[in-house]
């Protein structure tokens, strides 16, 4: 079973339980007392998941490592490539730094 099938099965079970609670004709006191909470719980779950996803993305961006040594190495490789191309007759435009 693939991950997608696992997630879809889990969501299907949760959806089936939610639909049963919403459309149920049984006289369950908990469902009758908290019907609005059960009715809007999918919207609440999506909102909470969105907040979680946003916080994870912001945290990962904030803690992103800056590789200064790699930047210097890349600049040296670019300079070396420009020199090799200049030897082959390629002419570069001067750019402002």
TrEMBL record:
One of its GO terms (cellular component) is endoplasmic reticulum membrane. Keywords: Coiled coil, Endoplasmic reticulum, Membrane, Transmembrane, Transmembrane helix. It is a multi-pass membrane protein. Its main location: endoplasmic reticulum. The keyword Magnesium does not apply. InterPro entries: DPM3. GO terms for biological process: GPI anchor biosynthetic process. Component of the dolichol-phosphate mannose (DPM) synthase complex. Belongs to the DPM3 family. This is Dolichol-phosphate mannosyltransferase subunit 3.
